Amino acid sequence: MGVSTTEEAPVHQDFSSTLTVGSRRVRYTDITKLGVDLNRLPYAIRILLENVARNRDGENVTDAHIQALAHYDGTKVGEQEILFTPARVLLQDFTGVPAVVDLAVMRDALAALGGDPQRINPLVPVDLVIDHSIQVDKYAVADAFKLNAQIEFRRNTERYEFLRWGQTAFNNFSVVPPNTGIVHQVNLEFLGQVVFDATDQIYPDTLVGTDSHTPMINGLGVVGWGVGGIEAEAAMLGQPISMLIPEVIGVELTGELPDGATATDLVLTVTELLRQRGVVGKFVEFFGESVANVPVSNRATIGNMSPEFGSTISIFPIDEKTLDYLHLTGRDEAHIAMVEAYAKANGLWHDPAARPAYTDTLTLDLSTVVPSISGPKLPQQRIPLDEAKQTIRRVRADYEAQDDSSVPVSLNGSGSVDLGHGDVVIAAITSCTNTSNPSVMMAAGLVARKAHALGLTRKPWVKTSLAPGSKVVTDYYQKAGLLDDLSAIGFDVVGYGCTTCIGNSGPLEDTISQAINEHDLAVAAVLSGNRNFEGRISPDTKMNFLMSPPLVVAYALAGTTDIDLTRDPIGQDHEGNDVFLADVWPTNDEIEAVINTSLGRQQFIDTYNDVFTGDEAWQGITVSGGDRFAWSDESTYIAKPTFFDDMPAQPAPLADIMGARVLVKVGDSVTTDHISPAGAIAQDSPAGQWLTAHGVERKDFNSYGSRRGNHEVMMRGTFANIRLRNELAPGTEGGFTIHLPSGEQTTIFEASERYRAAHTPLLVIAGEQYGSGSSRDWAAKGPNLLGVRAVIAKSYERIHRSNLIGMGILPMQFKAGDDLDTFGLDGTEVFDFTGIANQDQVPSELSVRATQADGTVVTFVVDVRIDTPNEQTYYRNGGILHTVLRQLAAS
Predict the structure, then answer these.
(1) Phi first, then psi: what are they for 832, rounded to 5°?
(2) For a Cys-Cys bond, which of 182, 254, 696, 852 suits 431, CB 3.0-4.6 Å?
(3) Is the pLDDT of residue 12 over 90?
């Protein structure tokens, strides 16, 4: 195709140009006209620059914003605010259901304020992929997927009926039905455009998503990151995202991955490296000659784990590898030509020789990457495989409460086995991080083939599962003949969605679970995912290790983590001879050969040809209701939230927070998994008691994630994680606290109800990296409903701090080196926050007065973490959505 560029008459101060590709002529915002050396700008900053230049209106987005980005200095950032306008929004069902619930209730609220409810509509394209609801109930049987899908649909019919209503009620809103694929892989393989084609205008494809692993799309050169559901809803309603110009950390890649090292080993190495550097809230960008040695599948694996090392994005620029991937995954050839032409014309094509003005640069020699795992509870705890046995033995001591080396357990159909500390009870090839990557998936299949041929299979106490990220995976497995080998050793397909990694691992056999809990066994899960936080994977596993899919298979064969896979046998063959990992591990050439014969462009075209159609069960859902949702008091899944009850047309004046009590006091690295309800619902928990009182049987409790559309369940599950250690209630784990001043120990929910009755505002005290983990809106919504008005932490994860403001909760930060201990406080005091009342905005510092039981008063100063003018507006209004509602009502 012929390509040429011409200039139009000046538009937006001559930023507009046209591009002709083949027979098409399109407009674009030309950042090469700014007269700056684009090669000195990080690629991601160029994307932001184009976004700001294209959306400049002279009021909210100004020339000053453009110039600040055009003259970017990576060492002088963090003060200039810009407004970013994403091209689209991506949701998954756990976070998507409450987002649609909020849109539905906003229609009611806008009507109550005298506005037109029809104005509540997504103004940008919104895609919701149903992928977080399936659970591993059935496994290691040929029809596991079919059975799990049936159970999923029965459990979630109310939610799916609601989403089908939303699909018809809202414009610009599409739903990818359940058991189609994982949201990030569908985004990578189908939804992502690289260049957004709006008929006669083109611009970079950008997005925000309500899952923190949205940066997987960065592997395609697309700027996108995870936000809370609250912030995503505002973006859906046309609100730009307020952000400070970010620091960009450049990672120069050299060398090539050695034989035997996988993409997973690479990403675990990157995670460790960047956690050590500290990149929370920063952009990470990969550059250098060896970028060309990293295919998009590996790039996406790295991008997926951005939240694990804390960066907002982890991006690779557009290059030939990008085009190769677009072709492989079935994108239109004319569009691929447009991507190439546009990227080259607008300074967005990767120049391997360029050295942009990064805030800081690191170097990673790919040849130094070695096989690794990470755990037992954080993704950055990388352990070289040849050190795993001794390291796990050492850390296991922290979890072993008794000396039992093993206990006998009777298994259904497998006789009796001995189960002991360090044994693997869950081995899961999970959906999003690695199943987008054919190299590691084929490696797992080849390990299974070789093991099967030698007579090896999973140990009978290991719950095995294969949850592909898209149906393309099973298609190429089928074509390669590897699906049968995987099934033969226990890795049957259990579903297409986020299973074990999100906590949907399903129950272990009753006898195994009982033995683990009665004898306090420190057993393990191994998974090819991105998250291994405490209490996340399974309530029965104290240790959780991340690793590549072929290593998951190897550990399932061995049945224990108390093994050196580089030296010890993983089992015995038909004749009783020892079999070692090296005997079943494929070479890079073997992996490449099976990929070349089993994976092709047409598979992606066929898979995504009718991606929005769904199966008969989805098509059979009856859609009821009109433009306003008909809420049902009988539903335990979907309920009308109370966030906008009695909301006045104008916000109340800012006020001091007086007489606050601490509800929860926690240490460092408390994640959104600790805060937000997730995983199974315990029968004796406040949420379980509420469900029981509403006629729900234990077997139908489902998970917290599936009930995110019901605030009554979610508020009762906030801070209820079984591994939460509330320092106000020492010696306890789970959702317990001390009610003050009575000193009575009770559940966090019950205490909050007592405080509510006394009109007592509540406070959370936290350590470093508070709110790290998934971008869960309920980690802010739940505390809001419990009555939490403020948080003081040593530091915050980016998304959670934003979400707190989005729900009207004031985030504050201790001065460097300070915490409550600094001032001789323990959290039992009464806290007053003054200096807010009668102000136009919350000051950057606040005075805190803590009154102890004996009347002693201690004062100290904290920083307010409201970082932008827009955030001040949101806080004053009580949250982002309240702000949008008032704006719509006023206009």
Answers:
(1) -120, 135
(2) 182
(3) no
Closest CA to 459 of 487, 430, 428, 427: 427
CA distance 458 to 213: 30
Mean pLDDT for 78-89 is 89
Number of H helices, E strands in the chain: 29, 35
Task: Tell me the C-alpha distance between 715 and 785, whole Å.
Answer: 6
Q: Going by C-beta distance under 8 Å and a sequence separation of 6 or more, which residues neighbour residue 837?
A: 653, 654, 655, 656
What pLDDT is recorded for position 487?
A: 97
Give the whole-angstrom CA distance, residue 770 versus residue 270.
22
Contact (CB, 8 A) for 550 and 440: yes
For CATH 3.30.499.10, list the domain ranges present in the chain.
Answer: 88-368, 373-608
Q: DSSP letter at 177?
A: P
pLDDT at 5 over 70: no
Determine the topology of domain 657-676+718-890 in CATH. Aconitase; domain 4 (3.20.19)
Report the alpha-carbon distance of residue 677 to residue 93 in Å, rounded. 15
Distance CA 286, CA 42 (A): 10
What does each C-alpha distance from 403 to 158, 410, 484, 521, 731 come to in angstroms? 47, 21, 40, 9, 21
Residue 458 and residue 417 in contact, taking contact as beta carbons nearer than 8 Å: no
- Which neighbouring-strand residues pair with 850? 831, 858
Residue 474 and residue 448 in contact, taking contact as beta carbons nearer than 8 Å? no
User: Which of 434, 468, 254 shows the shortest CA–CA distance to 361?
Assistant: 254
What residue ranges of the chain are covered by domains with CATH 3.20.19.10? 657-676+718-890
Closest by CA position to 140, among listed 391, 487, 389: 487
Q: Is the peptide bond before 438 cis (omega within 30 degrees of 0)?
A: no
| C-alpha to C-alpha distance for 363 and 250, rounded to whole angstroms | 8
Range with lowest mean pLDDT among 10-14, 170-174, 429-433: 10-14
The C-alpha atoms of residue 746 and residue 755 are separated, in whole angstroms, by 12
**Dist CA 324 CA 329 (whole Å):** 9
Mean pLDDT, rounded, for 490-499: 95
Of 741, 737, 647, 635, nearest in space to 691 by CA? 635
Question: CA nearest 89: which of 232, 300, 237, 240?
Answer: 232
Average the pLDDT over 346-357 and give the result: 95
Give whole-number Cα distances, 546 to 434, 543, 674, in Å: 11, 10, 19
**What pLDDT is attached to residue 614?**
87
**Tens digits of residue pLDDT in 140-152:** 999 999 999 999 9
Q: Selecting from 1.10.10.60, 3.30.450.40, 3.30.450.80, 3.30.499.10, what CATH number does the domain 373-608 have? A: 3.30.499.10
pTM assigned to the model: 0.85
> What are the structure tokens assigned to 183, written together?
């949201």
Please provide the size of the chain in residues: 891
Q: What is the DSSP letter of 733?
A: -
pLDDT for residue 268: 95
Cis ω for the linkage preceding 741 (within 30 of 0) = yes
Number of neighbouring beta carbons within 10 Å of residue 727? 18
Overall average pLDDT of the 111-119 stretch: 91
Cβ contacts of 462 within 8 Å, gap of 6 or more: 424, 425, 426, 427, 490, 556, 559
What CATH code would you report for 88-368?
3.30.499.10
Q: What is the pLDDT of residues 545-575, one digit of tens each?
A: 999 999 999 999 999 999 999 999 999 999 9
Phi, psi of 386 (to 5 degrees): -75, -5
Confidence at residue 402, expressed as pLDDT on a 0 to 100 scale? 64
SS (H, E, C) 473-535: HHHHHHHHCHHHHHHHCCCCECCCCCCHHHCCCCCCCHHHHHHHHHCCCCCEEEECCCCCCCC
